[in-house]
Structures are given as C-alpha cells and as structure tokens.
Amino acid sequence: MDSNPDGKLILVVDDEFDVLSAYTMLFEFRGFRVRTAANGAEALAAAQRERPDIVVSDYMMPVMNGADLCVAWRADPALAAIPFILTSAGILPRDLLPPYDLFFRKPVSFDTLLAAIHQLIARPD
C-alpha cells in the first residue's frame, strides 16, 4: 500500500502552512492528488469545486474549526459519505462527538495516517 495508482484526491485542512506543505509533499510522493485549505470554510468551498476522496482536518483552526467542518460535511448530501479524519495537538472536549471516521492526536506518524487513509478509501460505499 505504498502507492496510489488511481490518483485519489485528499483534501488537507490545517491553519499551519508547514503542515499543509509537508502533507502535500508526502501525499503527492505517494501518488495522491492534494488540495489544501486553511480552515473549515475554505475546505467546504474547495470540496464544492472538486469533490475529494477523503479529508484530513485539524481540529483547532480559525473561522471554522474541524469539528464544525465535520458536522457541516456530514450535513451536505454531496459530501456526507466521504471519509473524514480529524486530528488535534490538543485534547478534544469530552462532549465532542462529531461524526468523524477516525481521530488521531498530533503528532501522528505519516505511516499511520497513510495506512488509515488507504483503509478508509478502500471500504465499499
């Protein structure tokens, strides 16, 4: 599972430019196409322009955080079935139960994240 011959599209959402740059480079090296957004509102707009195969989003961001993005994502019939991975360097509030598929605490190893992505995009719709 080291490559992605189908060129699946990953939407990476994070307000830290270095994170976006690193993930873009690593995912593209593995054969994925990558789009990025700096907050949840930008991510929703990007997904309207080009529907991704999966989204990897940070939790703590300005404008619209990752939890609010996930709720809006699931409420949109065109996006609801797309797998959603939420990440955070902080601790999520105990009552935060948005309908994300997986959660990883940062820092998460790229190999762990990549394996989860392959698992989620390979599952039947």
Number of strands: 5
Give the helix level as a range of percent.
Answer: 25-40%
SS field, number of helical segments: 4
Biggest sheet, in brief? Answer: 5 strands, parallel
Strand order, biggest sheet? Answer: 2-1-3-4-5
Low-pLDDT stretches are: none
Taking the alpha carbons of the first and last residues, their distance comes to 20 Å
Q: Secondary-structure element sequence?
A: EHEHEHEEH
Kindly provide the radius of gyration, computed on alpha-carbon positions and rounded to a whole number of angstroms.
13 Å
Mean pLDDT: 90
Provide the β-strand percentage band: 15-25%
Structural class: alpha/beta
Described by the principal axes of the CA atoms, the overall outline is globular
Keywords: Phosphoprotein
Protein name: Response regulator
Pfam families: Response_reg
Topology:
Elements (H helix, E strand, L loop, with lengths): L8 E5 L3 H13 L3 E5 L2 H10 L4 E5 L7 H10 L8 E5 L13 E4 L4 H13 L3
Parallel strand pairs: 1-2, 1-3, 3-4, 4-5
Keywords: Phosphoprotein
Organism: Duganella dendranthematis
Protein name: Response regulator
Describe the structure.
By secondary structure, the chain is an alpha/beta fold. The chain is built from four helices and five strands, in the order βαβαβαββα. The protein has a five-stranded parallel sheet with strand order 2-1-3-4-5, sandwiched between helices. Helix 3 (66-75) links the parallel strand 3 and strand 4. It is globular, with a radius of gyration of 13 Å. The mean pLDDT is 90.
